[in-house]
């Protein structure tokens, strides 16, 4: 059986992270390079 509360928390955290990334990109276009670098580090860990 799947714990709904865990899914809700993970979904909420995902939305917060995506919102922060979008705000960073909108406020500072140069941050895209840093975000791409961080994404690659996390993906290839």
Description:
The chain is flat and about 45 Å long. It contains 2 helices and no strands. It has one domain (4-43). The chain starts with a helix and ends with a helix. The chain is mostly helical.
Overall number of domains: 1
Q: Runs with pLDDT <50, length 5+?
A: none
Helical percent range?
over 70%
Say how many strands there are: 0
Please provide a brief summary of the model.
With 45 residues, the protein is mainly alpha-helical. It has one domain (4-43).
Furnish the topology, listing elements before pairings.
Layout: H1 4-27, H2 31-43
Note the main attributes of this structure.
single chain; 45 residues; mainly alpha; 82% helix
């Amino acid at each position: 059986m799947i714990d709904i509360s865990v899914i809700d928390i993970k979904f909420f955290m995902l939305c917060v992270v995506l919102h922060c990334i979008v705000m960073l990109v909108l406020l500072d276009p140069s941050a895209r390079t840093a975000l791409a670098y961080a994404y690659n580090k996390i993906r290839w860990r």
